[in-house]
Amino acid sequence: MPLQSLEFDSICAVVQNNAGLLGQLNVKSTDGTAVLCATLGSNEPDNSDDDARASCTLTVELTRTDGAPLLSKTITDYEYHGDDPGDHLLDLLDADVLLCYLTGTPVC
Fold first, then answer.
1. CA-CA distances (angstroms) from residue 1 to 10, 23, 37, 90?
2. Is 4 helix (H, G, I), strand (E, B) or coil?
3. What is the pLDDT of residue 81?
């Protein structure tokens, strides 16, 4: 499965805010062969104010629909400021940034 051919439609994404993490996004590829999952979690789990959200861990995982792992990337010092982290992940999906993180290509 060539990664370049995978496409994800943000309209089909399931987005959660404050789901025990700061935010989570799950979306199946348009061809139904892969699932992209992104989570944004605070590096300071006991602190829920905006300063805690400045330093987060962003995890992006790509699996086949049968659950077999394809790629995973964790960024432990990801900076995020805002009120809706799940929506932020949706914005990253729309801009193809999540796939760039996975493949190591420069972010546009």
1. 21, 28, 17, 23
2. helix
3. 78
Q: Is it the case that residue 75 has pLDDT exceeding 90?
A: yes
By C-alpha distance, which of 100, 94, 81 is closest to 42?
81
Ranges of each domain in the chain: 3-103
CA distances from 70 to 3, 34, 44, 60, 61 (A): 10, 9, 29, 11, 8
- Interval 9-55: pLDDT, tens: 999 999 988 756 689 999 999 999 999 999 998 877 555 555 545 78
**Is the four-CA dihedral 35, 99, 97, 8 of positive or negative sign?**
negative
Query: What's the one-letter identity of residue 7?
Result: E
- What's phi and psi for 65, nearest 5 deg? -65, -20
- C-beta of residue 93 within 8 angstroms of C-beta of residue 105: no
Q: How much is the pLDDT for 43?
A: 79
User: Which residue carries 């590829």 as its tokens?
Assistant: 29
